[in-house]
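Quarterly update, task 2.4: flavin-adenine dinucleotide-bound model.
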Amino acid sequence: MKPAPFRYADPRSLDEALDLLSDETGAKVLAGGQSLLPLLAMRLAAPATLVDLNRVPGLDTVEATGDGVRVGALVRHARLLRQTPDAQAAARVQPLLARATANVAHPAIRNRGTTVGSIAHADPSGEMTSVLALTGGSVTVATPAGRETVGWQDLFVGPLETSLAGGAVVVDAFFPALPERSGTAFAEIARRKGDYAVCGAGVVVTLDEDRRVSAVRASYISVGLVPEVHDLTEAVAGEPVDSADWAAAGALARTLVDPDTDIHASADYRRLLVGVLTERTLADAAAEAVQRSA
Ligand code: FAD
């Protein structure tokens, strides 16, 4: 199918973009187009105007500081996987971001699709929504009234649905730094490499000064309608990292999630994968935590 007719606008400043978005009824932001254009082609969306952000200056930066990583609205997925100084700094400060990004789709899609577009799209099968949640992240939202920071808990309302007002532009996403003595890992199961995952898991393990487990958190993709963060600490709290019972944490995770059955997998299969992926990723994250504690 072809999209319904729409007006196309390519503003040269954020103010102009916000004007266009507030003037028009049914205007939508276009970033990488990797989710929006298929929706238009299938006529699942039919905005009157597409406001293309791609010529707005200042939205394509990756800034890594001691506090975390700020990713601008025009930063493509692929950018975070390059061996450039900004991407390498981002991977040191918050390694989960690049690790999860490597699982997003195929190279062609990662070359156009954006990290922030993925978050604004709010697909519960997308990796970036889960990473924003697990890192305790937020987005900066611009409207004609000004800018505000919206934490992940207040952003995701349902599948493909956020709390953003119509006409808002997400200017950047902020992923807080990995805490001291912590490690992360990410893994997923997809039918073919590059497909949306049947189930995925991201985890963070934190150790105390004696290398005992002090905190374990996990977030899953394609499990539930919105991203959630699960605290698995009680299963392994105080255990020495070398002998921690990660299988017990996986078993706890299985009891906490509430997956759905769909055409790709049953709820029971997804629950099984949650346990397996949790156990596997926790072992990897613990190894990184040991390394970063040295
Ligand atoms: P667009 O398609 O341009 O926009 C998506 C939505 O977000 C639109 O509603 C748009 O209005 C809104 N939006 C975008 N940017 C902003 C902004 N700055 N402010 C406000 N609203 C905004 N994604 C995954 O996570 N994992 C996958 O495995 C995966 N596989 C894919 C496989 C295929 C075949 C395809 C086509 C896509 C896949 N994707 C996957 C989606 C891809 O990651 C997209 O890049 C991403 O979902 C959206 O980013 P975008 O920049 O392309 O956004």
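Highlight for this quarter: The mean pLDDT is 96.
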